[in-house]
Design goal:
It contains ten helices and twelve strands. By secondary structure, it is of the alpha/beta class. Helix 1 crosses helix 2 and helix 5 packs across helix 10. The longest helix has 26 residues.
Length: 307
Amino acid sequence: MPTLKQLRYLVALADTLHFRRAAEQCQVTQPTLSSQIQGLENTLGIQLVERSRRNQVVLTPIGKDIAERARIVLTDVQDIVDVGRHGQQWLHGTIRLGALPTLGPYLLPHVLPRLRKDYPHLKLYVREGMPAPLIDGLASAELDLLLFPLPIIGADFSSVRLFREQLWVVIPADHPLAKKQSIERKDLADETVLALEPGHRLYEQVADICREINANLSHDFEGTSLDTIRLMVGMGLGLSFMPTVYVLSETPKDTQVVARPMRNQPPLRTVGLAWRRHSARSREFEELAGVIREVLKSALPEVTTLD
C-alpha cells in the first residue's frame, strides 16, 4: 500500500513540477524524494511522472489524477489529527487564517486583542493573498479558515456570515460631489471609477456597479491595494468604491479625499468565515465567528452584524 509520506511527496512534486524544489518543500534530500516516488510507482505498477535531466517533471495523466486524490487523503488525515489534538480543547493551538488585503488589516486589529485576552492559548497565523490562492490554500489544508466575502462559489466549504458593509463612494476633496452628504446613483453617470486590479473580489463588484450606474471603469490606473487607489483618487484620477471597514480606518487620515454613502440601494458586501466542510474544528470556527460578531457590535457599529 502507498504510504502517507509517498503521497505527500507526490503532491509536492505536482505543486512544484521540480524534484529539487519538491524536496526542499518536504525538507528531505532530493535522492530521498526521488526514491520514494519510484517506490510509489513500483507499488502501483504505473508511471506517475516523466523525468528530465534538469530535475523538471511532467506528471502523466494518471499521475495527475492520483496526485489530486492524494490531496484529499492527506486533508482527511490532517482532520483526523485535528480531532485528536483539539477534541478536548476549545480555541486552543494554531489556526491558519487566510484573509483578503481589503479585509484583514482593517478588521483584525479590532478582533485580535479580544482573542488574546479570552483565548491566550490560541495562535492565529494570518496569510494575506488574492482570492484564488487563498481558496486553493483552504481546499488543500494549507489554511484552516478564510475571512472572505460570501458566497464562495463552487467550493466544498462551510461558511457563516459575520457582517454586511456598504461600499462608500470615495471622492477627491475638491470634486463637486464632495459637497454632497450622500450620493445618488445618477450623480455617478459618466464618472471615471478606479478599482483594484482584476483577480480581486472587489474589482468584480466595482465593475458590476459601474455597469449598473453607467460609470466608466478605468483600465489605465488599476491599483494593487486600497491605499494605492485612495492616493490616485486624491490626485484627481477618478472616484472609487471602498468598503466601510477600510473607509473608517483610513480615509479620515487623508485630507485629499472624502467618503460619502450612497443614498438609495447602496452597494453591499457580506463577509464571513469559511472552512472545509468536514473540518474537525467546525464547532470551534462557529464559536470564533460569535466572538467576532460581539467585537464588531461594539467596535464597528457602522457595519451590520449577521447571525
